[in-house]
Every structure is written in structure tokens, then in C-alpha cells.
Amino acid sequence: MQVIIVKDQVSAVLEEIGAKRKNKHIAEAMGLAIGSLTIRSFNDPNVRAAPWAPLKEATLERKIAEGTSTAILKRHSLLFRSWRVVEVTSAFVRLGSDRFYAPFHQWGTKRGLPARPMLPLLGTAAAAQLTPLAASRMVSAAKAALEGFLLRKPGKKPK
Predict the structure, then answer these.
(1) Model confidence band, residue 150 (pLDDT cutoffs 50, 70, 90)
(2) By the 8 A CB rule, do 71 and 64 touch?
(3) Using alpha carbons only, what angle is made at residue 56 by residues 55 and 59, rounded to the nearest 5 degrees?
(4) Which DSSP helix (H) or strand (E) runs through 105?
(5) 3-class DSSP state of 34
(6) Which of 7, 110, 111, 137 has a CA that sits 20 to 30 A from residue 27's CA?
(7) Cβ 141 vs Cβ 29: under 8 Å
């Protein structure tokens, strides 16, 4: 049996991916995939982690009287526009909103505000898990980013 050693071709790439861990490109791509699903959840019920409770009749009447959108969580469209990647490292990516009320809508409140999860997470705030769709999109984004990383020209840094 003949053995061909390809260490010289492979080791540099493996070291760059594993040892340096400077490449935040993959983590950012994964975060952007989750952010995209989060924003889409405001218009597409199929990507939501759970169905949203309908508006109470009084809330619907107030929105009509105010002349604001009667769509759920879209009074001024500030919440759905606020989601973005706020921090990226080689170990994690943080998605956030600058709207203080975002967690109240995501998880609901003890005072009766129903949870209307926009983030693709199942479970509680303390033990949340990605939805199957979110996990799949995140893996696809990571694969595409890694492929781009591996296929780039030597010496060229990812954007």
C-alpha cells in the first residue's frame, strides 16, 4: 500500500482555521443568517419559532384610532428594523436590538403580555434553543463562509 502525505498542502489551511482563530467571518455569517430569519419573522409566520397571539380587540381599536399599522409588532416598524449583529468574535456572535422592549415581546411578561418570538429560539430565555430552521440556516451560512475562506486566493484576507 502506497501512502501519500499531503501535510504540506493541508496543514497551513488547518492551522489558519483552527490555530489562529482570527477569522470572524464564519461567526458573522452565522449571525447574519439568524438576523435575517428574525427580521423575516415579522412578515412570514412560517419562520417564527411559535405562532403569535392575535392582538386584543382593544389594542386593535387603539391602533386604528392612532392611524398606526394594525400588524402585530409593527406600530412604527422600529422593532423589526432594530435587529443586527452587535458583536462578533471567533467564538460567538451576538445579535441584538436597541429597543428596550424587545425581550418583553420575545419572551412575554408575567403581567400578561403574550410571547411573540421573533428570534428563532424555542424554550425559555434561560434555556433557549435554535429552531430547526435556524440551525439549518446557520450551518448553511457557516459552510458557505468556510468554502469562501478555503477557496480564496492565498494571502488574501476575507472581507
Answers:
(1) confident
(2) no
(3) 85
(4) helix 102-107
(5) helix
(6) 7
(7) yes
